[in-house]
Amino acid sequence: MDEPHVERRATSAPPATVEPPETFDELGRRRAETERVAVEWAIDELADIVAEQGTDLDPMIEYARRSRKSLPDRHRRAYDAMAEAFDVDRELYDVYVFAYAELCEALADGPGRTEKHPAGASAGLGCTNVLVSPEASAPSGPVSSTRSGSNLTGATGTDSTAPAGTDSFTPTGPLVLKNRDISGRGCRPKSVIEQPPIEGCFGLLTVDTCGTVSIFKGVNDRGLVAANTQIESERDDVDPEEQRRNGTIIRELLEECATVEAARRSLDSVPTRRLGGQTLFLADETDAVVLEIDPVTETIAADEGPVATRTNHFVYLRSTQTESSTTRRERTLDRLGGEKTDRPTPVDRGTLWELAADHAHGPGDRSVCRHPEPETDEPHAFGQLTTASAAVFEGGTPEIEFLFGNPCERTPTRAAFGDELPRAYRSGERWLASQPSDVVSTAGIER
Question: What digits encode the pLDDT tens for the residues 339-351?
Fold first, then answer.
């Protein structure tokens, strides 16, 4: 399949007058300054809703306080520097960073609650991921606008009208797709986050939530890709201070490891009981694997097949398996032609972006591209699991193809380390500008 139109930002080094930060403390302060408008809007919005509903934050504040202690020192320093820079309620900001799923659960009562996510259900489970090894993929041909909606507004803020054949990109390493599904996406602004090499750590590039320290997908400057899907598997005998949160593990792997082999060694050095339940996708230039990590049984199972896809249940290990998770995985396998190498057509970037926008069994919880359930489209989707961003990576290539929101409504943009992206992409203001008009007006952002 031809590659969909991808808005390509010309590579341009950052201005020479801007020196990279030398410490994680300074990194946190700079991120806070860049993302200030989006984060302060989100916290203020949440504060109004919490006050209106009379939500008891005390249990979440305590959980956030304890979870902060689980961070490695460098991440904690970056977080504290961000927290000090934002002009927001510190306790609510802590909840936003460390207990957002629990907050969404508390705020979801009412018309935004779906039958598939009744009170007491986990509000944090989502995502559809795919890993494609080189033998199952095909070189992506000239760029074309074959995907529905592929001429939507691109990174420049104008319609993408570049003719087919003006760009090409031939993958040689494994491909990884992640559709990031979350609850409460309407108060969770997204931005491009580029972290330079710092304090002996590798640089990393991702699209994730403004003002947070967790990373759930990304690529480092050595070309290692890491992404996950969450699995409902957690031990009762591991305190929040000791648990290695999923977003922490992925960030540590990107900062510390150059290859899949090194990442697996790093994981082996951590007691599995202290990890979070997840499927972890890893890829470098020549190697790729999906790891099913179950802290309850203290087991890690590896899937090294040519095509591997996961949603929110284990395939090799035992776990809770919801109808949504099963349906999305079955649909993904159907679109990709199964998990074998003898498929009718190879899987390339265009195939993955088509899959990311798939609406079979939707709208709602069971489609790959997840929108709110009919008649429950309340502004912030606290009781909904909806697609907040999507990204395609290639192992060994320190670039990212990404979009904010639902893949059916956006054109993916490609960016690399050092690209001179518009500031709105790094600040979260691009995300804000795509929100409903009443949201935009309160944030002071022009469309």
Answer: 765 555 788 999 9
Cα 200 to chain centroid distance, Å, stands at: 25
pTM: 0.88
Q: Residue 56's CB: how many other CB atoms inside 10 A? A: 10
CATH code, 438: 3.60.60.10
| Inter-residue contact 420 to 12 (CB < 8 Å) | yes
Comparison of pLDDT for 376 and 284, the residue scoring more: 284
Q: How far apart are CA 249 and CA 24, in angstroms?
A: 17
State the Cα–Cα distance between residues 49 and 61, nearest whole angstrom. Answer: 16
- Rounded distance between C-alpha atoms, residue 376 and residue 274, angstroms: 37
Residues 6+ apart with CB under 8 A from 241: 66, 67, 69, 70
**How many domains would you assign to the chain?**
1
Distances (CA, A) of 78 to 23, 27, 142, 187: 9, 6, 41, 22
What's the token pair of residue 37?
């408008």
Beta-strand relationship, 7-8 and 128-132: unpaired
pLDDT (tens digit, 9 = 90+) per residue, 96-119?
999 999 999 999 865 444 444 444
Residue 190: pLDDT band with limits 50, 70, 90: very high
57 within a domain of the structure (yes/no): yes
Which structure tokens are listed for 212? 């947070």
What percentage of the chain reaches a pLDDT higher than 90?
A: 68
Range of the domain at 408: 7-443
Residue 1 lies in a domain: no
d(CA 310, CA 302): 12
Query: Which CA distances in Å does 6 have to 148, 224, 345, 396?
Result: 13, 22, 22, 20
CB 169 within 8 A of CB 349: yes
According to the model, what pLDDT value does residue 7 have?
Answer: 61
Domain presence at residue 2? no
**444: which 2 tokens?**
């002071």
Distances (CA, A) of 223 to 234, 265, 284: 30, 17, 6
